[in-house]
Design brief:
single chain; 332 residues; alpha/beta; TIM Barrel; 8-stranded parallel barrel; two-stranded antiparallel sheet; 10 strands; 45% helix; GH; Glycoside hydrolase family 42 N-terminal domain-containing protein; transmembrane helix; membrane; transmembrane
Length: 332
């Protein structure tokens, strides 16, 4: 009798597990179909462009006119925009918003203390006071000033509050849910545009970030590097992201790829190798493959990471990535 009962119980659990697996497979393969042509855009960093020795306005114009980019994610760097308390330098962002609007392009502005590009956090020296690593009230003043300045801009599509705030990456203090809730509440009180928040596609849970935002953006990296083995390719398939997106969709309006790798992972200073050597680490074939991979995740929007790098290579007689980007955007 005990053996019979044990077999029935085992069969019961096998049926339960099988049913769960079948439901998950149906969600992944039937309810969320790949987008043949997701909306493509790029992240554009004036700071990174300058680090590469480029004129940010020249690069931005080339992306608009030569590549045909019509969707940008642009960080507003606190330390660059407010170098002294109450003294705001909006010139770069003003210019980009004007140029985008003139061509019918749309922009997501990223505000907060942690925004795209290393060292991730851009906190002005004058704000590093008090018991917390910096004065959060002064951050809220900056964020409020940014929203009030750009909320009437025709090119502005949505706001991003911080960049991967809960990922312990970069030279940054730890973020708390309460801090981020306060920032989101501030932005919502000043403008009714959607708010996007971001998380690592591979290294984080998505639930909290999805619940705090209208749109969840995730990063997708295919080729990374570590000291033990050098460059490695992530083995995760597209359905991994598709399933995770489906599971958090009840908590947010949309899930998109806000950061798709489109440049090498740099394990050392860029100046340590020649442009031709770096060009071998991420090729036009890699770019094409990553865009196809992103489409297979089913995400409706994909922002590419590395547009400034394409232009740097172009200016250093390595045009392949730039030329492939032109082809990719013409097809989108």
């Amino acid at each position: 009798m005990k053996s019979w009962s044990h077999n029935v119980s085992r069969t019961y659990w096998i049926l339960i597990v099988s049913a769960i697996v079948a439901i998950l497979l149906a969600i992944v393969f039937l309810e969320t179909r790949p987008h043949a042509r997701p909306r493509l855009g790029v992240t554009f960093s004036s700071v990174y462009a300058r680090q590469l020795g480029l004129d940010p306005r020249e690069v931005f114009t080339a992306l608009l006119d030569d590549v045909g980019v019509r969707h940008f994610r642009i960080p507003v760097y606190w330390s660059e925009t407010e170098p002294l308390e109450g003294e705001f330098h909006w010139d770069d962002v003003d210019w980009m918003m004007d140029e985008a609007a003139a061509r019918g392009a749309q922009v997501t502005l990223v505000i907060g203390h942690k925004v795209p590009r290393w060292p991730e956090c851009y906190i002005p020296d004058w704000a590093e006071t008090g018991t917390y690593p910096f004065d959060r009230e002064k951050l809220l003043v900056f964020m409020g000033a940014a929203v009030e300045r750009y909320r009437e801009e025709p090119a502005l599509e949505r706001w991003q509050v911080e960049n991967e705030p809960y990922l312990p990456f970069g030279v940054c203090p730890e973020a708390t849910k309460e801090n981020i809730d306060g920032e989101v509440e501030l932005v919502r009180s000043l403008d009714d545009r959607p708010i996007i928040m971001t998380a690592s596609g591979e290294l984080q849970r998505w639930g909290l970030t999805a619940r705090q935002s209208d749109v969840l953006g995730i990063s997708v990296y295919r080729i990374t590097w570590n000291r033990a083995v050098g460059y490695i390719r992530y083995p995760l398939p597209p359905w991994f992201y598709r399933l995770r997106a489906r599971l958090v969709r009840p908590a947010t309006d949309a899930v998109i790829i806000s950061e798709l790798q489109a440049e090498p992972w740099f394990p050392e200073a860029i100046g340590n190798r020649s442009p031709s050597e770096w060009a071998k680490e991420f090729t036009a074939d890699d770019l094409r493959a990553n865009v196809l991979f992103a489409a297979q995740t089913g995400m409706p929007e994909v922002d590419l990471w590395g547009a400034e790098w394409w232009y740097f290579l172009l200016k250093n007689d390595e045009p392949e990535l730039w030329e492939e980007a032109v082809r990719v955007f013409r097809k989108s």
